[in-house]
Amino acid sequence: MNPYQMITNNINETQEIAKRLAKYLKPGNVITLEGDLGAGKTSFTQGLAKGLEIQQTVNSPTFNIIKEYQGRLPLYHMDVYRLEDEHEDLGFEEYFFGEGVTVVEWAENIREFLPKELLNIKISRLEAENRRLIQFEPIGDQYRELCKEFFQHENIST
Ligand code: ADP
Ligand code: MG
C-alpha cells in the first residue's frame, strides 16, 4: 500500500491538507493533480494557495490555461484540460523551472513537457459523496524526501 495517502471527508479537509503541504514547497517544485472532473483538483490548489499566503481568489484557469499568483512563493496554476494541441509548447518550462511552485491539472495532456521529477497527487472519489482518497506519488529523490517529511512532521495518519 502507498504509505503517502489519506482520506478526506469534505472539501475543508482537502484544502487543509494542501495548505499544510505548502509549507514544504520550494521554488521550482512541480505538482501534478490527477483526478476526474469534480474530484477536487482546483479545491486542493485553493488550499495550497492559502498556505502560500496568496490573498487572491484562485479559480479554475480553464480558459487561460495558466494563471499566476503572488504569495510567499509565486504559484503558477495550469489547467490544460482544454489544450487544443498537446504537442504545442506554451512555454511550460519557464514555469516548471521558475521561481515559483507550479500546479498542473490534467497534466497527462502535456506529458512530453513535464519535468522528470515531480509530485503527482491523485484524488479519487469514494462511495460517500464527499469522501476522497488522496494519494501522493513522488517521482525523484527530492519529492520522496518531501513526502516523508510532510507525513512525519504533520502527523498524517494513513
Ligand atoms: P476538479 O478541479 O478536480 O474538477 P473541483 O475542485 O473544481 O474539482 O471541484 C470539487 C468539488 O467537489 C467541489 O464542488 C467540492 O465542494 C466538492 N467536494 C466534496 N467533497 C470534497 C472533498 N473531500 N475534497 C475536495 N472537494 C470535495
Ligand atoms: Mg479543476
From TrEMBL:
SUPFAM superfamilies: P-loop containing nucleoside triphosphate hydrolases (SSF52540)
Gene Ontology biological-process entries: tRNA threonylcarbamoyladenosine modification
Subcellular location: Cytoplasm
Keyword Nucleotide-binding applies: yes
Keywords: ATP-binding, Cytoplasm, Magnesium, Metal-binding, Nucleotide-binding, tRNA processing
A GO term, aspect molecular function: metal ion binding
Signal peptide: none
One of the Pfam families matching this protein, by short name: TsaE
GO cellular component: cytoplasm
Similarity remark: Belongs to the TsaE family.
Name of the protein in its database record: tRNA threonylcarbamoyladenosine biosynthesis protein TsaE
